[in-house]
Design brief:
By secondary structure, the chain is an alpha/beta fold. Helices cover about 30% and strands about 25% of the residues. Strands 3, 5, 6, 7, 8, 15 and 16 form a 7-stranded mixed sheet that branches. It has a 6-stranded parallel sheet with strand order 11-10-9-12-13-14, with helices on both faces. A 3-stranded antiparallel sheet has the order 2-1-4, covered by helices on one side. Its main location: cytoplasm.
């Protein structure tokens, strides 16, 4: 089968940073589905793994943790899907990724694709939606209640993949006042269109920007990138007993700054359930099915923003380069081999 892989950690402009390869078809486990991949999207995790995680010597490593496709076969103990079902998922970090014509994935982290979306548009959503959902409802423990709560959420980096979903979920499924950060006119317009009540500029001190729009403190902060650069301002912006959740990988944080306000710190990593085979990993199956319902009802929309053509090494290299530039808006999607 066709796949895109790498053999060593190389800069994305290197000729062999990503390569078109031929690999054997995957063998599925008892809880697995064999999926014919129709479309994928590209995430910062792809860039991080390609740059930092070396494959086993001489072995190709396949990236890709967002996919939409059709079930071709099911494992002996698989019971949630049948061949022919249209599915979407983000996969497991410790297994080969979905940048391949066929892909094996545990059915307990797979959902039914929305009826209203094509494969390409659907592929933009799973990883970022799972991350945003878990961050909002599991880590920050915000209540799903559309009645105004009087509480505020600041989303730092709201125009990116996770932020684009988080803003929608917070605005439509909770009673929070949602404030997003974005630095360019086009990304500020994007975040506003997604439903943020306010948009502020993260190139300026966050606490000062909040005061500019009449908000003294916020109850929750979702920090999605450059947390180390914004950390002091986040602490200043949070109300006493507030909550901070993050998804990025700051080199160091002085968490002693949280003490005087009794602030809590939460880390969201959507691969935890699959990585440790937790008893509740099927929650991601349920979450994706509920997300499909919300999409079909018009409550949540896809964040596919850049379409890069066929799934091949050249187009994936372009996608990685754009993500590394930190200038991406929404999600980059590719479809077909």
């Amino acid at each position: 089968m066709k796949a895109i892989a790498y053999y060593q950690n190389l800069p994305i402009d290197h000729a062999e940073a990503l390569l078109d390869v031929e690999l054997p078809e995957p063998i599925i486990g008892e809880h697995d589905l064999l999926v014919e991949v129709k479309a994928i999207s590209v995430n910062p995790v792809d860039v991080k793994v390609r740059a930092n995680m070396a494959p086993e010597a001489g072995q190709p490593r396949v990236l890709g943790w967002d996919a939409a496709g059709v079930v071709r076969a099911v494992g002996a103990k698989a019971s949630l899907f049948q061949p022919g079902d249209r599915v979407w998922y983000a996969g497991a970090l410790q297994r080969p990724g979905a940048n391949s014509e066929l892909h094996a994935v545990d059915e307990r982290i797979v959902g039914r694709m929305p009826d209203s979306l094509d494969f390409e548009t659907a592929a933009a959503l799973p990883l970022t939606a799972i991350t945003a959902w878990e961050l909002l409802f599991d880590r920050l423990q915000v209540l799903a209640n559309s009645q105004p709560s009087g509480k505020t959420l600041l989303v730092v980096g709201a125009a990116g993949g996770v932020g684009s979903i988080l803003v929608q979920l917070a605005r439509r499924l909770t009673g929070l006042t949602v404030i997003g950060t974005a630095s360019r006119p086009e990304t500020q317009a994007w975040v506003t269109a997604l439903g943020a009540h306010h948009v502020i500029d993260h190139r300026q001190p966050l606490s000062r920007e909040l005061k500019r729009i009449g908000i003294e403190h916020v109850d929750y902060v979702a920090s999605l990138n450059q947390t180390d650069q914004h950390f002091a301002e986040i602490v200043e912006a949070l109300a006493p007993q507030g909550k901070l959740a993050l998804i990025d990988d700051p080199a160091a944080l002085d968490i002693s700054q949280l003490k005087r306000k009794s602030l809590s710190l939460h880390w969201e990593f959507m691969y935890t359930r699959s990585m440790y085979s937790t008893d509740d990993q099927i929650e991601q199956h349920k979450l994706l099915n509920e997300l499909a319902r919300l999409v079909d009802a018009g409550i949540v929309k896809s964040t596919a923003a850049e379409r890069f053509g066929a799934i091949n090494a050249a187009n994936l290299k372009r996608a990685h380069a754009l993500l590394e530039s930190n200038a991406a808006k929404g999600k980059i999607v590719l479809s077909g081999f």
